[in-house]
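hey so i finally got around to running the thing on that chain from the lab meeting. sorry it took forever, my laptop kept dying and i had to restart like 3 times. anyway pasting the input first so we r on the same page abt which one it is
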Amino acid sequence: ISGIAAISLALLIAWHTLRKLSLKSRLIREQMEELQRSRQALHEEATHDSLTGLSNRRLFYDRLQQAIRHAHRYGGKVGILYVDLDRFKEINDRLGHHVGDAVLTEVAKRLTASIRDSDSVARLGGDEFVVLLEEVQGRADLLAATHKIEQELNADTRFYGLDVEIAASIGQALYPDDGDNEDALIRAADAAMYRIKSGTESERQACLPFSEA
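ok and heres what got predicted. didnt touch it at all, straight out
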């Protein structure tokens, strides 16, 4: 083989080798990107509600725990609003689960629209939602947030051509007054919500935790 032919052959081999390496590199990059997307999807599934896209119970507990730690360190306060839809079972039974799902999705949007960027909302399951209010000054902030949520939820709503009334019972709890950890705080807000759901109009306005009765 002449010198020119040998050089040409070497260049051809090198070109094919580089091409294979480029293809392998692209394949590896695509596989890594797909793996990253799969990981993100798994994380989303593990931490978010599939119907509404809101944080689920697991992620909410993590955020609440972090908020409590921050408040404890700097002497701040954290608020919890426990939101339970009124007559949701009746909506499901009379209008169908497709309407019920639409209501839950709309409630998620309205709750998100009614809170600050620093706050967060989660769906615990069924027709129960919970709102985390960080860096609040006291109960007045919780009451103001409750009234704003009630106004958002009470707006006229139509699903599939049907008028649907959305209302909720909302219980409040304040860290550290009503609990010094996430479990105690959620229990206090849950108890307040049940008192409101079955109580008088004055209790509905007060929204005080069960422990303060």
